[in-house]
Amino acid sequence: ANAIELVLTKPYSKRFIEQSISILRKYTDLTSILTLTSTKDLVKYEEIVNLAFKNGIDFVTLDLTLEAELLRRLINNSGYTKIIGSYVDTTGELKWGNDDFLGYYKFAQVLNADLIKLVGTATSIVDNFELENFRAKLADSNLISYNLSDFGVLSRVTNPLLTSISKSESIKQLNSLYYKIGGGLTKKYYV
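RE: above sequence
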């Protein structure tokens, strides 16, 4: 694993967040990422993100569907914390092939996000190939992109940067699949 992600599905207390970040910093050398999935209470969202900045989390994931002014304000307060500009389509309506994700990518660039995370929901295996074409067209080493759903496993295998691991799959399984489809087979020998 390259990083450990603290995913908050609701606005937790200040004490809980500070303790969680403290535990991560104390017990692991992995890069720490905070992701807050609930954006209903924007005041609380901003408080939690600023608290993460203050407590020295390495990365914070910011939802690109939030108001541009709020995102700019948070980014200006980020200090040494790096920003992941993120958009997740859980509906499967957006398609990689018609550049539906391109607007979110460009918006994250305008915001100067350090990493850009775009997540779709595959409705067929073809969605993975369209994603790979999208990724190849951009040739951006700071792009995290993969598909959700059982159809999206291939995209999680081939994603080169910070792939999320779900409860149903392990990094060992993804790495095994990666090698089975020919990834990482190029070896150099020296005498």
